[in-house]
Amino acid sequence: MTSMDQTKANHDDAAKPLWGGRFSEAPEGRLERFGASLPFDRRLWREDIAGSKAHAAMLGRQGVISDEDVSAIEDGLDVIAGEIEHGEFAFDVDVDEDIHMAIERVLTERIGPAGGRLHTGRSRNDQSSLDAHLAAKEYSTRLCHALIDMESCLLARAESEFGVIMPGYTHMQPAQPVLMSHHLLAYFWMFSRDLVRMRAALTAADTSPLGSAALAGTTYPLDRRSVADALGLTRVSPNSMDAVSDRDYICDLVYACSLVQVHLSRLCEELVLWSSAEFGFVEMDDAHSTGSSIMPQKKNPDFAELVRGKTGRVVGDLMGLLTTLKGLPLTYDKDLQEDKEPMFDAVDTVSDSLFAVSGMVSTMQVKEGRLAEASHEGYMCATDLADYLVGKGMPFRQAHAVVGRVVGDCVREGITLQDLTVDELRSYSDLFSEDVSSALDVETVVSRRTTYGGTGHEAVHEQISEAHARLSADEVSLGGE
Ligand code: ARG
Fold first, then answer.
1. Alpha helix positions (H), 301-435
2. What is the mean pLDDT of residues 255-275?
3. CB of 98 closer than 6 A to ligand 1?
4. 382 and 370, same structural domain?
5. Containing structural domain, residue 466
6. The pLDDT value given to residue 15
7. Domain of residue 468, CATH code
8. Which of 276, 292, 427, 477 is catalytic?
9. Would residue 182 show up in a list of annotated catalytic residues for this protein?
10. 258 vs 197: CA distance, rounded Å
11. Quick check: is 455 in a domain?
12. 96 Cβ closer than 6 Å to some ligand 1 atom
């Protein structure tokens, strides 16, 4: 193509964009594609069509456009929806910048002037934000349900493993024995807090910005409340300038996703450790692991690792979004087009990760024998041995020092605390007597942790009931969503 031809082609293009009137030249292909959001915002076609139908119907009710126009618009949009649904709609990023323009252009080509009236009293600024609100509401609702599934899966496992004792760690060093149920329930509570955050994100999304137009509202007698009602949105944004530049609701959602993903990552890190030959606490189900193409013996916790790895991108989505918003002047700036990809990415990643992890947790095999063995290693009854001496009247600091010497000697000799006879213990303090065996019995050591929220059997039993109550309350309150 000669440069003359190129100029002419550009001039012809100028007739295409919706704003073509003012322009003699359109950006050339590569630049046009750089500015386009169609490749990713086409995912919002359902929201866009729902928003347009609600807007058109309201324009009709308010007498801004005729009933015939409303019918033509609605019918035309239904046909387009069917085509997109069946993959028959020809999206063309060289023609349309975004989903809003693609749908409106094709509608207008088909139904004529009525299509040209759809955008009355509306801007793509409030339209694109409306679509994102509707999507964010849908995504947060779905993620709330996925979080409830995750909670039920952890609670079920905490119940089925009740009584199994494992080492509890601080600094990744054996600290005190705990019930495995207690360990699993720790994650239950993390996800239940995530649910609170996800619901907050849902509430934030539940607002209609439509009717804010470009930034200042409009001269047409729009009934914003009725459009919000038709779309199932609870609130109408009270400030048009805030409405078209606000992306807080997307940040809320991506933040809620980030913390879910961080929690999943911590759990996955434990699954990776626990399923290693060195720990041997669990064996991952075959269908939730992978093998090696060279080492026949390998069973790799790939999916757990991948969830851990994908945490970087979800946190990156949040950072990217916040950084995009930082320093933006009111109102709409094209930067805001960068809001959707991080939202889609975070939501998709967290949703797949929740699915993967709940599958791993519910199918993993718990190695009780190995856990019992590990619970006797690491001198984890040392605190209880010191408490025993305290019970006999020794100040805790002194008891700590005595037991420290006992442990030091055991370490040097390569034996456990349970290997010591009462007589041997008496050489450290004559307060030791026959009843010391209970301080060294792992089962007793665990069950004596009776404080509310502790790992004792009774306390965990109570915690399980509380978790059930929490889960039912969450299910009931989400029932309507
Ligand atoms: N594609 C745009 C976006 O996603 C739509 C809004 C564009 N508004 C504008 N004035 N250029 O942000």
1. 302-325, 340-363, 368-376, 382-391, 396-413, 422-426
2. 98
3. yes
4. no
5. 375-474
6. 47
7. 1.10.40.30
8. 292
9. no
10. 11
11. yes
12. no
